[in-house]
Amino acid sequence: MTEPTEFDLIELATPYALNAISETERAAIERQLASAPAAVARVFRDEVRAVRETMAVVSAANATDPPARLRAGVLATARVENARQSRWRVALLTAAAAIVVGLAAFGAGIALRPSPAPTMAEQIMAAPDVRTTSSPLAGGTATVVFSRDMNAGVLVMNNVPPPAQGTVYQMWLVGDKGPQSAGTMDTAAVAPSTTHMFSDLGNSSVLAFTVEPGNGSPQPTGKIFAKLSLT
Amino acid sequence: MTTLVAEPIGYRSMTEPRRGGDLDALLRRVARGDADAFAAFYDHTSSRVYGLVTRVLRDAGYSEETTQEIYVEVWRTADAYDPAKGSALSWLMTMAHRRAIDRVRSEQAAGQRESRYGAANVDRAFDLVADSAIAADERRRVRECLDGLTDVQRQCIDLAYYGGLTYVEVSQRLAANLSTIKSRMRDALRGLRNCLGVP
């Protein structure tokens, strides 16, 4: 179709604002608008805005209370959405921005599209009591997203250098029974962005990191070089 | 609020809820995932949304479904709302209208609405049950302004805005040329805007 002239474009502002155009025309109008002189685009947008504000007021004429069940349905949907998405958003906002990289690597974008069977990480994110804590770690950042209700957490490490050959990073959940090993990461396991699940937080209040020889130790032998509070 | 006293049915009083803060603030809270704000936003606006959707779709089942979809979209995309571009109510009603029109057009494309298609009738709008969130004076004022349009202007708005026709289809329906239809639409909206005192 022929591209509209500037005059035609402004004339189309009202039909555009009323959605009284085809999708093809909408695309053509928006394309032309993007390259139109600023003054023309402003006139167009002012007109669209005025039409939409006007029709918003006009909506009072048709106002009809919807059935009560609709309210329940809408709010329930929001609660589910909240669990699936907003919790993510909140968790991600409170964590370092870099966490996104780690989670994307970990869960292939689970934050962005709900999967039919939520992964453990997703369930943690969706938990009503999800918390996030973050700390510098050996020049990088460690972030833990955890839920006491789920009794589980996800550790995300960004830009943490790998441990020296022949040693591992070992994680310890420290509770009233002292440190319990929460897994190890050897040189190969530590990437620019690394994730690790904890499935049993117990009553631990701290996640601590040590460097241990070989494949790790039953109890920490190295000095704790980083810790994250889980309280 | 002396403005509201001096001008009880002015633009602001017609678009702002009577309690619970203004819609823009509510919508910004919705964007942060505030479920209470979402419930309040729904309570302040759902009669407008449902009324518009029902007017366009003319089917209770489709209307409920579409209204639900609209509010899910509100919940998901509230953070895209930009107050600099217009009021929260306008953002909502634009989205609601777009959804309803998309639905009506896809139904038409599927041939399911042939019998109801084109039955747009302005009188029906005023037979609906009055609702609690919109004051009677607002409804009366809007109705007076609609009554102030010429018949051909009102017909254009009915066919396009409520009937889902494009301005090209309206011109075919009324056997009028395109620029005539565009002028009628523009004049209708200017008339309404002036009458309602929309800035």
Description:
The complex is a heterodimer of chains A (231) and B (199). With 231 residues, chain A is an alpha+beta fold. Chain A contains seven helices and eight strands, in the order αααααααββββββββ. Chain A has a four-stranded antiparallel sheet, with helices on one face. A four-stranded antiparallel sheet of chain A has the order 5-4-7-8, with no helix packed on it. Residues 96-116 of chain A have low confidence and may be disordered. Chain B is an all-alpha fold and 199 residues long. Chain B is built from ten helices and no strands. At the A-B interface, helix 2, helix 4 and helix 5 of A face helix 2, helix 4, helix 5, helix 6 and helix 7 of B.
Per-chain topology:
The complex is a heterodimer of chains A (231) and B (199).
Chain A: H1 6-11, H2 13-17, H3 23-35, H4 38-58, H5 68-94, H6 99-107, H7 120-126, E1 131-137, E2 140-147, E3 152-158, E4 167-175, E5 178-185, E6 193-198, E7 206-213, E8 226-229
Helix pairs in contact in A: 5-7
Chain B: H1 2-6, H2 11-15, H3 23-31, H4 35-57, H5 60-77, H6 88-109, H7 136-147, H8 151-162, H9 167-174, H10 178-196
Helix pairs in contact in B: 3-4, 4-5, 4-6, 5-6, 7-10, 8-10, 9-10
